[in-house]
Specification:
InterPro entries: FAD-bd_oxidored_4_C, FAD-bd_PCMH, FAD-bd_PCMH-like_sf, FAD-bd_PCMH_sub1, FAD-bd_PCMH_sub2, FAD-linked_Oxase-like_C, FAD-oxidored/transferase_4, Oxid_FAD_bind_N. By secondary structure, the protein is an alpha+beta fold. The protein is built from 17 helices and 21 strands. The protein has four domains: 89 residues, Uridine Diphospho-n-acetylenolpyruvylglucosamine Reductase, domain 2 (2-Layer Sandwich); 119 residues, 2-Layer Sandwich (Uridine Diphospho-n-acetylenolpyruvylglucosamine Reductase, domain 3), CATH 3.30.465; 116 residues, 2-Layer Sandwich (Alpha-Beta Plaits); 83 residues, Alpha-Beta Plaits. The radius of gyration is 23 Å and the shape is globular.
Length: 475
Amino acid sequence: MNALIDILRARLGSGGMLTDPTDTEPYCSDWRGLYHGRTPAVLRPADTEAVAACVRACAEAGAGIVPMGGNTSMVGGAAVSENGHELVLSLSRMNRIRAIDPVDMTMTVEAGVTLKAAQDAAREAGCLLPLSISSEGSAQIGGVLATNAGGNNTVRYGNARELVLGLEAVMPDGTVFEGLRRLRKDNTGYALRQLLVGSEGTLGIITAAVLQLSPRPRQVEVALCAVASPEAALALFTAFRSADPSAIQAFEYMSGTGMGLVNRLIPDAALPLAEPAPHYVLVELASARDDDSLRTLLESVLGEALEEGRVLDAVVAESETQRLAIWKLREEHAEAQKRAGGNVKNDVSVPVSRVPELIARATEACERLIPGIRVAPFGHLGDGNIHFNLVQPDGADRVAFLARDHEIMDTVAAIVRDLDGSFSAEHGVGKLKPYMMPSWRGGAELETMRRIKHALDPKGIMNPGKVLPEASPPT
């Protein structure tokens, strides 16, 4: 390892490597605090050629590489092992926006650009990068694509996968996949970029991407609605979809428990409704039209829902400040739950029609499993992705509660499976959930994944211990 570090230091220079434990420590713990490892060095290449050189050297030495973007993974996707045998490769210095083309509606960005910086650059060019997630100020493009992030606008624009036209990546042997093409149509063999998107750094390291942009909306309308039940929330979504499906940009569900934690634990978060409610919906509509038709649509659907009792109360943002204040109530759910104590996250998806059943059955099962547990689901009702999160009982022991995380996750997962869903919707598998893969994706599906991994990364150096459970290499 010492010889390898000397080689890498000579290639990267003094500013391209961190070895002092004080400097490397922030890279050795994940955002949730679930994993704490060790690394002898953090590599900080500044360009694709340097990334390739690092990977070639590590491949020759058989050293594991953990690619890291903003380190915002919810499942330990960038966690290093405790044995100190893996090197962290940070993409943070590769933070250039290479090109924006408002005619092609594309932008070419390096992996270390934060999602927020990419959004801002697109906005300055008169365009919209529609991908939006709570951690966009820290999350970097490479990690966003490697995990196929979803986010708030999936209901309209799809996951990250749908926005990727081309990729540049360093493969496990140090060769460079040069696929930065801006084409909507390119039927020339296998779509290798899509193999890398969502692979969580286990098949290669994304270094740059061509992303598809959209026109900026001229109108945006946001409302926060109090509803009596998840069924009422789904009925409201159906009403908006029936009125104009193209207008829906986001449709978010929040429980009363989760909203209560946000209002209590997040400074400057204030509920703009007269009274607390058992459930809430945030609806955002957007349109390229420059008239009052969107407000008319919003008020018409909400007015009918209020008359029929599906909506108990509602407030419509009258300014950008009010819009951001409403979104703050949704975006701070994860942080509020973190501050409330130990919490177990279940990033699950079911068919949209079965979301109310998921919430009801999983709530009952978890409250039966741990009396006093705080059930705080929230998320993207419009695409069926609910973050079914559980917070420790008030005053309970955090360590004891988290020691039961697999038991809690398995309780929720059993219901998700019965509803034809998935145990991972947008956060990925990471280090936390590979144990679920054999029962959920076993047989030919898992075996094919193993064969792809072994074919591209025979030495198993790329993000070891993530996604796939341990197994003997295929013969």
